[in-house]
């Protein structure tokens, strides 16, 4: 079977969604690890230094563009699958089972994914666009000179309540998307084994479902609270 | 006189000699020969697949939505084979002997020996197909004893052996469909056989979705359409199981063998009311651990658990101390009927007996406690342990019982009653499985051949697959080798036109009656007559009455049946009507056959022929023959006899005392 | 008890369907769900109306023919139970029960509650077998099989092909059905020579039939009357992954 044929099968497409999903899972861990420095009371030195490094390292830049491609790929294939899945049942049931046979969030991956996508557009235009193409002030720390003061932009952004609320809502969507998404990707790659399901479930729920989204959500909330 | 064409020579070499001398068809010619297979159960699916593998062009038909639905799928217990994997003294001869004896000496030695001979190959074939039989920890196949045999020769897949074997045959069939060697016709029902110059040359089938009639040509036609237990309305058969294919063949010249030989299975869930549509079997294996009893007092309405031990009548253990609860199916069924008829029955209908696991639970519980070294375990602990052992062995059956009855069989005894299960009778066939119509074959339960007057447990699956995988691929060549010159007969041949017209006329007639009663109304009435007068016990008076009643019912059916809708659409009521019309004719023949057989043998119990203790009494001097009935017009049949000779196994009176 | 049945009626695959409401009385708790339909049909016939067409055959939960979507549940409210084994003890006097056919593009309605499931046959035709002609087999005990594998193969092979997995899945996916057969044959040494082609071909056919894809919600497993496990879907995914990466 040729690659093109293989990735055109339903399972082939799902493997792509799963693989890109795993990559994005890895990304959110790294992203959170970096962003935590926003909470450091150092006037933004750690965060701005980190941001400058990320913005100028060639390899990171390559990854960053790759990340955007992967997000798009993840979304586009998922949309294609969703459309196909919709077509597989042209006449809908009059009575639906509700949550008796499956969890609501496992059925709402497309909805959660769409919310996340909108969130991402806002998030990127707010910070990534500002950092690269916007007009932001610079700051110097010892050896590190003239780096963009993204820290300031972030603090200014999270001073507004509606943006903080938006971020918290985005992270709730991320939580449910990942609780099902991580486990689902494991299943798609055939990782379903009595001995390992416990640890996979633990990672899916506690790491991706709770720790990461809560970690992300804490940042805007704390920054907001610090400024009132 | 009927010629069964049993090959000459010693029993052990008949089949091998036949195989090495039978005519062959060369591969290039096989492609030109077309074979029609009716039914896709174990016999039909295995035959269609095997013949297609050989190169014949096969057309297979089933009335269900998929060939995988055939009722072979419901067989629970297992399949016998003379493998002797358990080193317990089994052999081809012993399986042969048990089958002839179990059939109460009314089957052919030659056929049964061949069945036992090919049994081992069936297991090999099924394992190679991926049938997941039960295995031991060492990775080898597991066996159990079944139906009171003294050796462990039954292979099984939990309680779903029939399902697994059928899915194996179905897979083989689907492979041939994919390869283009089999053309599959789902939701098609055969409604008549087309004969040309006395030979079977095709069928008329109805597409059940569109209602259209179709003509299909075949150099040979194989009927693998199962048994006719649904003549009783209530049976363990599927709702759609019917006699139509076999009966139409009978009306076109195929003799019907031993129609009265019906197997009544002793352990079924009893009827719960008038709404009852079918009966559910509880596997025979339950009798290995369950004890059957009724109260000693008539009309005892106490709860089973409230009746003390000394007021219980374990009637099988009392009457048959040697075999106890493990007597053969026919004996156990009659004994239950006798108790209920005498007024000792239990449950709301009083037509049931208890199958009690309380003692087995205690026994297993004690063993488990002993294994744990806990010799002082309390009764509650013992019962708990025992229940878990019973659950492991019979859990799925207990669950099924609980779903259907709403009672918990771990706490209160099961109620069971006999029900129609299998028909040993069927189209008469010779050694080659050919009916009296050249080119028309009958396989599996549809033929009469191997089980005599009573079938042993786990032998139906064996016979269906033996016929399909290992017998017909050889014997059909012997006929088709002479048919190479026969060109496919055009479908506008007068024989096709006339037969289709006859089918069309019957459909028109049925649709035009527009009477007062539904098809089920007539089916239930027929079932009641058959069960009351041609069921577990039969006598001359009852059978004579039954014949008159069936004739009257048949006349009323043809004047007063109501079929809704039209014949040019999907119309399940019309399908049922055609089947019941045939049952109404078959029922009469069954009664006639039961009437002429003035002896008791196997499943056929004539009250006039019993010992002083009420046991069945065979009459070998006068009835050691196969009754093969020839159709002679509506309500008229002529009896032909095929004498049975026993060179190896000498008939004795069965005794289980 | 008295019940209200709202049943999907559809003359054939072309015409549009609608719900019709029927009142049935004298329903006994001992009746099976299909026996209620028998009684209702008997009444409809006597009233000169068209009875409700529904698929059924063995009525002991093994043939896989019965297929009703009852109050939002494939085969009704009881776990691991086919429609024919569902008994009226599950309901109370006065209940309203909505009965629909399996709904999927790959299962077109034939009439009323009867649908066409031949797509399943075609998936099996694409590779759900071991290519062994009759007579080719070695002795049945020649190849010992790990009991756990044999048991797992049996558990997968217990699938009755009823289509409840498709009916229950929000995507009408046939992954549980397809994976059950692929699993059974992948677990047995006899199935190994063809395993790569089998997995790829059966999945290709499944897609071609118009079934949706799996989003791992688990509804199929929850509704399967034979308790076929999601581990089979994982195994199918592994089989396809390995086959897709390695086959030419």
List the helices and strands and how they pair.
The complex is a heterotrimer of chains A (about 230), B (about 650) and C (about 250).
Chain A lengths: L2 H4 L3 H26 L9 H12 L1 H30 L16 H4 L1 H25 L4 E4 L2 E5 L1 H8 L3 H28 L5 H34 L1
Chain B lengths: L13 H8 L5 H4 L3 E5 L3 H13 L2 E5 L17 E2 L11 H11 L6 H21 L24 E2 L5 H18 L3 E4 L2 E9 L2 E9 L5 E5 L2 E4 L20 H8 L4 E2 L4 E7 L22 E5 L16 E2 L1 H5 L9 H13 L11 E4 L1 H14 L7 H27 L8 E10 L2 E2 L12 E3 L17 H21 L13 H20 L5 H15 L6 H21 L11 H25 L23 H4 L1 E7 L5 E7 L14
Parallel strand pairs in B: 1-2, 1-9, 2-5, 9-17
Antiparallel strand pairs in B: 3-4, 6-7, 7-8, 10-16, 10-18, 11-15, 12-13, 12-14, 14-15, 18-19
Helix pairs in contact in B: 3-6, 3-12, 4-5, 5-12, 10-11, 14-15, 14-16, 15-16
Chain C lengths: L2 E7 L8 E7 L8 H14 L22 E2 L2 E2 L21 E5 L8 E3 L2 E2 L2 H8 L21 H11 L6 H5 L6 H13 L7 H14 L10 H5 L7 H16 L2
Helix pairs in contact in C: 2-6, 3-5, 5-6, 5-8, 6-8
Put the structure in a nutshell.
Chain A has 228 residues and is mostly helical. Chain A has nine helices and two strands, in the order ααααααββααα.
Overall description:
The complex is a heterotrimer of chains A (228), B (657) and C (248). Chain A is mostly helical. Chain A has a single domain, classed as Fumarate reductase/succinate dehydrogenase, transmembrane subunit (3 helical TM bundles of succinate and fumarate reductases, Up-down Bundle). In chain A, 75% of the residues lie in helices and 4% in strands. Among the domains of chain B are: 267-420, Alpha-Beta Complex (Flavocytochrome C3, Chain A, domain 1), CATH 3.90.700.10; 495-617, Fumarate reductase/succinate dehydrogenase flavoprotein-like, C-terminal domain (Methane Monooxygenase Hydroxylase, Chain G, domain 1, Up-down Bundle). Chain B has 17 helices and 19 strands. Chain B has helices spanning 14-21, 27-30, 42-54, 92-102, 109-129, 161-178, 244-251, 315-319, 329-341, 358-371, 379-405, 460-480, 494-513, 519-533, 540-560, 572-596, 620-623, and strands at 34-38, 57-61, 79-80, 154-155, 182-185, 188-196, 199-207, 213-217, 220-223, 256-257, 262-268, 291-295, 312-313, 353-356, 414-423, 426-427, 440-442, 625-631, 637-643. Chains in contact: A-C, B-C.
């Amino acid at each position: 079977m040729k690659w093109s044929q293989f990735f055109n099968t339903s399972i082939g497409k799902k493997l792509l969604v799963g693989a890109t999903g795993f990559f994005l899972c890895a990304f959110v861990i790294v992203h959170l690890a970096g962003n935590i420095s926003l909470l450091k009371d150092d006037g933004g030195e750690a965060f701005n230094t980190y941001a400058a490094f990320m913005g100028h390292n060639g390899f990171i830049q390559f990854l960053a563009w790759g990340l955007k491609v992967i997000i798009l790929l993840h979304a586009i294939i998922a949309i294609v699958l969703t459309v196909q899945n919709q077509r597989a049942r042209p006449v809908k049931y009059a009575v639906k089972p509700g949550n008796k046979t499956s969890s609501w969030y496992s059925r709402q991956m497309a909805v959660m994914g769409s919310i996340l996508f909108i969130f991402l557009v806002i998030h990127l235009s707010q910070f990534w666009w500002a950092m690269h193409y916007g007009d932001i002030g610079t700051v110097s720390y010892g050896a590190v000179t003239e780096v963009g003061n993204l820290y300031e932009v972030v603090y200014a952004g999270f001073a507004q309540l509606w943006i903080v609320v938006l971020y918290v809502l985005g992270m709730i969507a991320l939580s449910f998307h990942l609780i099902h998404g991580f486990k689902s990707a494991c299943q798609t790659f055939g990782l379903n084994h009595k001995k390992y399901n416990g640890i996979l479930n633990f990672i899916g729920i506690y790491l991706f479902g709770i720790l990461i989204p809560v970690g992300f959500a804490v940042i805007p909330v704390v920054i907001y609270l610090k400024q009132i | 006189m009927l010629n069964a064409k049993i090959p000459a020579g010693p029993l052990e070499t008949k089949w091998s000699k036949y195989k090495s001398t039978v005519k062959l068809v060369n591969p290039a010619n096989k492609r030109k020969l077309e074979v029609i297979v009716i039914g896709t159960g174990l016999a039909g699916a295995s035959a269609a697949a095997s013949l297609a593998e050989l190169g014949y062009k096969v057309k297979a038909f089933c009335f269900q939505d998929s060939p995988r639905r055939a009722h072979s799928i419901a067989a629970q217990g297992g399949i016998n084979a003379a493998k002797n994997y358990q080193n317990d003294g089994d052999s081809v001869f012993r399986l042969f002997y048990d089958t002839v004896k179990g059939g109460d000496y009314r089957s052919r030695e030659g056929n049964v020996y061949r069945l036992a001979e090919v049994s081992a190959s069936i297991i090999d074939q099924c394992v190679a197909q991926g049938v997941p039989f039960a295995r031991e920890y060492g990775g080898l196949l597991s066996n159990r004893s079944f139906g009171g045999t003294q050796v462990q020769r039954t292979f099984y897949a939990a309680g779903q052996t029939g399902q697994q074997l059928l899915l194996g045959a179905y897979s083989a069939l689907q492979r041939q469909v994919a390869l283009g060697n089999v053309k599959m016709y789902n939701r098609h029902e055969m409604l008549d056989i087309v004969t040309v110059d006395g030979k079977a040359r095709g069928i008329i089938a109805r597409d059940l979705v569109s209602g259209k009639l179709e003509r299909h040509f075949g150099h040979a036609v194989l009927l693998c359409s199962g048994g006719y237990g649904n003549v009783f309305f209530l049976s363990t058969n599927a709702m759609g199981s019917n006699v139509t294919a076999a009966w139409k063949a009978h009306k076109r010249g195929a003799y019907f063998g031993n129609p009265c030989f019906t197997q009544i299975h002793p352990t079924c869930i009893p009827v719960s009311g008038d709404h009852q549509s079918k009966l559910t079997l509880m596997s025979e294996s339950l009798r290995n651990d369950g004890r059957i009893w009724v109260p000693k007092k008539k009309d005892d309405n106490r709860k089973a658990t409230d009746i003390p031990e000394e007021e219980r009548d374990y009637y099988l253990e009392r009457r048959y101390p040697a075999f106890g609860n493990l007597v053969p199916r026919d004996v156990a069924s009659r004994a239950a009927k006798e108790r209920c008829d005498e007024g000792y029955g239990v449950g709301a209908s009083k037509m049931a007996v208890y199958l009690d696991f309380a003692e087995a639970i205690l026994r297993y519980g004690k063993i488990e406690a002993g294994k744990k070294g806990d010799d002082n375990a309390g009764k509650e602990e013992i019962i708990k342990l025992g229940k878990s052992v019973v659950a492991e062995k019979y859990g799925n059956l207990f669950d099924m019982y609980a779903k259907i009855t709403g009672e918990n069989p771990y706490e209160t005894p099961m109620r069971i009653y006999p029900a129609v299960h299998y028909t040993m009778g069927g189209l008469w066939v010779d050694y080659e499985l050919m009916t009296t119509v050249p080119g028309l074959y009958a396989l599996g339960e549809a033929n009469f051949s191997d089980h005599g007057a009573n079938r042993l447990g786990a032998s139906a699956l064996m016979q269906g697959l033996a016929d399909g995988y290992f017998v017909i691929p050889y014997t059909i060549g012997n006929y088709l080798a002479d048919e190479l010159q026969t060109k496919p007969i055009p479908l506008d041949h007068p024989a096709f036109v006339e037969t289709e017209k006859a089918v069309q006329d019957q459909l028109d007639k049925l649709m035009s009656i527009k009477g007062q009663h539904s098809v089920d109304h007539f089916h239930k009435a027929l079932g009641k007559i058959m069960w009351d007068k041609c069921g577990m016990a039969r006598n001359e008076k009852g059978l004579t009455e039954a014949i008159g009643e069936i004739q009257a019912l048949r006349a009323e059916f043809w004047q007063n049946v109501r079929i809704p809708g039209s014949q040019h659409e999907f119309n399940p009521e019309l399908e049922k009507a055609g089947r019941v019309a045939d049952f109404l004719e078959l029922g009469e023949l069954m009664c006639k056959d039961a009437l002429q057989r003035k002896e008791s043998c196997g499943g056929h119990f004539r009250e006039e022929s019993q010992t002083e203790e009420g046991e069945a009494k065979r009459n070998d001097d006068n009835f050691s023959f196969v009754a093969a009935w020839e159709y002679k017009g509506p309500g008229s049949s002529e009896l032909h006899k095929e004498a049975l000779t026993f060179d190896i196994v000498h008939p004795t009176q069965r005794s289980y005392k | 008890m008295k019940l209200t049945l709202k049943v999907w009626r559809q003359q054939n695959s072309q015409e549009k369907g609608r719900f019709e409401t029927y009142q049935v009385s004298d329903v006994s708790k001992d009746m099976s769900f299909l026996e209620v339909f028998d009684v209702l049909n008997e009444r409809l016939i006597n009233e000169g109306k068209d009875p409700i067409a529904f698929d059924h055959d063995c009525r002991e939960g093994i043939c896989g023919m019965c297929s009703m979507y009852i109050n939002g549940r494939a085969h009704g409210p009881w776990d691991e139970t086919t429609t024919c084994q569902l008994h009226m003890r599950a309901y109370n006097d006065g209940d309203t029960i909505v009965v629909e056919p399996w709904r999927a593009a790959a299962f077109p309605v034939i009439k009323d509650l009867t649908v066409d499931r031949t797509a399943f046959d075609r998936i099996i035709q694409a590779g759900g077998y071991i290519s062994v002609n009759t007579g080719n087999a070695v002795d049945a005990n020649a190849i010992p099989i790990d009991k756990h594998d044999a048991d797992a193969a049996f558990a997968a092979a217990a699938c009755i092909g009823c289509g409840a997995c498709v009916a229950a899945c929000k995507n009408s996916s046939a992954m549980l059905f397809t994976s059950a057969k692929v699993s059974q044959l992948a677990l047995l040494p006899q199935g190994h020579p063809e395993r790569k082609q089998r997995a790829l071909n059966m999945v290709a056919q499944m897609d071609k039939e118009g079934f949706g894809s799996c989003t791992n919600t688990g509804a199929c497993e929850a509704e399967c009357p034979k308790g076929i496990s999601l581990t089979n879907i994982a195994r199918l995914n592994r089989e396809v992954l390995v086959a897709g990466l390695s086959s030419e």
